[in-house]
């Protein structure tokens, strides 16, 4: 474990807590894309399949349980909670996210480190996570006024993988044979997808204005 | 058996 990866995990945890806080306290999921939340639930379900077969540390297992539990409970809240589900803008959240799942699965079947069931699904989860934010970014561009919590949620979610990139550079420099191109490229693409959001988020923070993405 | 890639990252 290094400081970059710890910062990445804490940022990721913070993004999940911000979203749970928003949904649980003000009972609203306005501006949040259910499609992105569903994709993230699939990402964690396919990435943490080894939670029962391999144990690395209490921290590792605990964080996996937190990410699995939070992502599925957010989907549950947005789909079934009587108050929250009414605040979900179904008409705006129209990204065909299933069109993201299939190409990622096909790509994982073509490009992976080992052709085993767990490894292919794990690789699939990497590719899917890289594009999982797209429905949310599209929804943000359609929603005129983005509330602070939703903006912070997306900002933290984008930032965590950026810290992971620093972690991979650090591990590449300090650990022999630590080379994982698939993880690195997927992580880089994922972070780059946030580039324009980060730009407008920073602008709104600098000019102390409401965050608005150009349509 | 090839040493499986340590998946110690989240």
Automatic annotation (TrEMBL), chain A:
Topological relation to the membrane, as annotated: Multi-pass membrane protein
Keyword Transport in record: yes
Subcellular compartments: Endoplasmic reticulum membrane
Keyword Transmembrane helix: yes
Source species, domain of life: Eukaryota
Record-annotated membrane-spanning stretches: 55-77, 98-115, 121-140, 152-170, 182-202
InterPro entries associated with the record: ER_ret_rcpt
Key words, A-Z: Endoplasmic reticulum, ER-Golgi transport, Membrane, Protein transport, Receptor, Transmembrane, Transmembrane helix, Transport
Family: Belongs to the ERD2 family.
Protein name: ER lumen protein-retaining receptor
Originating species: Camelina sativa (False flax)
Higher taxonomy: Eukaryota, Viridiplantae, Streptophyta, Embryophyta, Tracheophyta
């Amino acid at each position: 474990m290094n400081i970059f990866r710890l910062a990445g995990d804490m940022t990721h945890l913070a993004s999940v807590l911000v979203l749970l806080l928003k949904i649980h306290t003000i009972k609203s999921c306005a501006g949040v894309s259910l499609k992105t939340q569903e994709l993230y639930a699939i990402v964690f379900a396919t990435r943490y399949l080894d939670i029962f077969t391999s144990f690395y540390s209490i921290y590792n297992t605990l964080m996996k349980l937190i990410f699995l539990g939070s992502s599925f409970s957010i989907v549950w809240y947005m789909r079934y909670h009587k108050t929250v589900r009414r605040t979900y803008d179904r008409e705006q959240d129209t990204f065909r996210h299933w069109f993201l799942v299939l190409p990622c699965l096909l790509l994982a079947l073509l490009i992976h480190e080992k052709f085993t069931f767990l490894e292919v699904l794990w690789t699939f989860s990497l590719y899917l996570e890289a594009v999982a934010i797209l429905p949310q970014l599209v929804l943000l561009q359609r929603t005129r006024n983005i509330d602070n919590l939703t903006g912070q949620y997306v900002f933290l979610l984008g930032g965590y993988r950026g810290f992971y990139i620093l972690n991979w550079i650090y591990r590449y420099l300090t650990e022999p044979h630590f080379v994982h191109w698939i993880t690195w490229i997927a992580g880089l693409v994922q972070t780059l997808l946030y580039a324009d959001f980060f730009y407008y988020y920073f602008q709104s923070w600098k000019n102390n204005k409401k965050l608005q993405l150009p349509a | 058996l090839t040493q499986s890639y340590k998946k110690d990252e989240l």
